[in-house]
Design goal:
By secondary structure, the protein is α/β, with parallel strands linked by helices. The chain has four domains: about 130 residues, Rossmann fold, CATH 3.40.50.2300; about 130 residues, Alpha-Beta Plaits, CATH 3.30.70; about 110 residues, no CATH class; about 110 residues, Arc Repressor Mutant, subunit A (Orthogonal Bundle), CATH 1.10.10. About 50% of the residues lie in helices and about 15% in strands. The chain contains 19 helices and twelve strands. The strands form three sheets. A five-stranded parallel β-sheet has the order 2-1-3-4-5, with helices on both faces. Strands 9-10-6-11-12 form a five-stranded mixed β-sheet, with helices on both faces. Strand 3, helix 3 and strand 4 form a beta-alpha-beta unit. Helix 9 packs antiparallel against helix 10. It is rod-shaped, with a radius of gyration of 36 Å. About 30% of the residues are buried.
């Protein structure tokens, strides 16, 4: 809606113009009226109207002088002069000062005013289109710190803030895929982006730096209060979020700066661009203050081989701790701050494990979640996938093994931390222990004691990775009376000492 100011030293004349047409239905808003040129200049400074309709003959500063001073402030302001007298000299001076038109009061009616405003709007829109192209170019040069001499004449002040509107990358089958803002999404959100706020926050321009990232530059005027500025910035970002949430299936985050000056624009843009890489760790559909974001962690590489093999063991041994173990792995990527590299490597390793087992076992993936963007969503997705695989393998084993062998496996899962032998198994099932051992090896392919050892070592690995117990405590937790014997068995099966394995994930 274009802003209009009315100026006339006769109150009745201002009242007549105010009620001559329905301004708002025509797309205009009267932001102020003045009875002299001095007051008109004050109103202009406060409201920055696009159109000024002024009488020529006024006491003190006349309409021509007002036009000259307004044009000196802003060459794009449209000025229409009105007068009770048809004077060629006035019209000639008006043209000299850049006045849009010269109208006679006694001829002015609704039809003429609407026609004149239509011409003015076309002129303003054409000018705004040219300015918008220039502002976008200027903003692009500012954020990349490439402003040359000769293109700095755009008067946008020195008080700004930046907002980045980011469409989240979508995760699928082990990797993140590029996304882009759709045309209809940009059209809707730009309506909100370009709205001014309380005549203090003004849109300057936006630049689509990548298909899924839009950077917006705003200028701040008419307030010196830091509290008001911070509040307005946050409210602007809230409005952007509300608009995007209203669009179906729009996954996004918004990052904004506090007030900055022109020289800071490029460096703040670089900081926002760096932080937005970690959006997968943030809450969905939220706005974040750049200065309050958790700093990124060191991009240390983690060799996930050991943990992935542990996960493989847990799948085949139908461990009930898979959910907690996967949660532990994902948690490692955030322990010392967000580690994007470690997170992506973990996804690659887990996805490869899932695909390998699916191919080996002939299993088709059941979980088909879509629109995954965040770490928590991806973690839950893999918990579903892997527990489905575990359960399907167990069901197939139910067909492969007899009930007695499955019951022996279940006994191990529940009692592995106790002393177990073929003799104690025989007592538990009231059968000959030697016979049970022979039956187990025939159906499973390894001895009962080897299966028990593998399960105990698997659980020990998990406890060592968690780091909450020392070696002695771990050995007792998994069914070994002494840490020395536990260490011997661990070295034989894993190829390293328990204390070395405990340190391995940190390397």
């Amino acid at each position: 809606m274009q802003k209009v100011m009315l100026v006339d030293d006769e109150v009745l004349a201002i009242d007549y113009l105010t009620h001559l047409i329905d301004w708002e239905s025509q797309g205009y808003k009267i932001v102020g009226s003045a009875i002299n040129g001095k007051k008109a200049l004050d109103i202009y400074e406060k409201h920055k109207p696009d159109i000024v309709i002024s009488d020529i003959c006024m006491m003190g500063m006349d309409g021509l002088e007002l036009a000259r001073q307004l044009k000196a402030k802003n060459s794009d302001v449209v000025i229409i002069l009105i007068s009770a007298y048809k004077d060629f000299e006035y019209a000639q001076k008006g043209i000299q000062y850049g006045v849009a038109n010269y109208l006679l009061k006694h001829e002015l009616n609704e039809e003429i005013l609407i026609r004149e405003l239509k011409l003015v709007r076309e002129k303003l829109e054409a000018g705004e289109k040219r300015k918008k192209i220039y502002r976008e170019y200027f903003t692009n040069r500012l954020i990349y710190n490439q402003v040359e001499e000769g293109i700095t004449e755009l008067e946008i002040g020195n008080r700004f803030f930046l907002v980045m509107v980011h469409k989240n990358l979508l995760f699928s089958r082990g990797m993140f895929n590029e996304t882009k803002w759709e045309t209809y999404e940009l059209q809707e959100v730009k309506k909100v982006i370009e709205e001014e706020m309380e005549e203090k926050v003004y849109y300057v321009s936006d630049v689509q730096i990548t298909p899924n990232n839009l950077i917006v530059l705003y200028k701040i005027q008419n307030t010196t209060s830091k509290y008001i500025v911070s509040s307005l910035i946050f409210r602007k970002c809230e409005k952007i979020c509300e608009c995007l949430i209203s669009l179906s299936n729009c996954q996004f985050n918004v990052v904004y700066s506090e007030e900055i000056n022109r020289l800071e624009i490029s460096s703040i843009f670089q900081k926002i661009s760096f932080q937005i890489r970690y959006a997968a760790f943030w809450k969905p559909q939220c706005a974040y203050n750049l200065y309050k974001l958790q700093p990124a962690g060191k991009e240390e590489r983690i060799a996930w081989n050991v943990q992935v093999e542990e996960l493989r063991t847990m799948i085949y041994e139908r461990s009930e701790s898979i959910k907690d173990f996967i949660g532990h792995l994902f948690g490692m990527t955030e322990y010392y701050g967000y580690s994007l590299g470690a997170f992506k490597e973990l996804l690659h390793a887990v996805e490869n494990l899932v695909r390998e087992i699916e191919e080996k076992e002939g299993i088709k993936r059941k979980s088909s979640r879509e629109e995954l963007c965040k770490v928590g969503e991806i973690q839950h997705y893999y918990i579903e996938c892997i527990t489905d695989i575990r359960d399907e393998i167990y069901e197939r084993n139910g067909e492969k093994y007899c009930k007695l062998v499955i019951d022996m496996m279940r006994y191990i899962y529940k009692n592995y931390n106790q002393e177990i032998s073929l003799e104690s198994i025989g007592e538990e099932f009231q059968m000959n222990g030697v016979y049970l051992g022979q039956l187990f090896k025939k159906e499973v392919g390894i001895t009962f004691l080897k299966y028990l050892t593998n399960y105990r070592i698997g659980e020990a690995k998990k406890l060592l990775l968690e780091g909450k117990m020392n070696i002695t405590e771990v050995s007792k937790q998994v069914g070994y009376k002494t840490s020395q014997y536990f260490s011997q068995i661990f070295i034989k099966n894993v190829g390293m000492k328990p204390q070395d394995y405990k340190r391995e994930p940190k390397k």
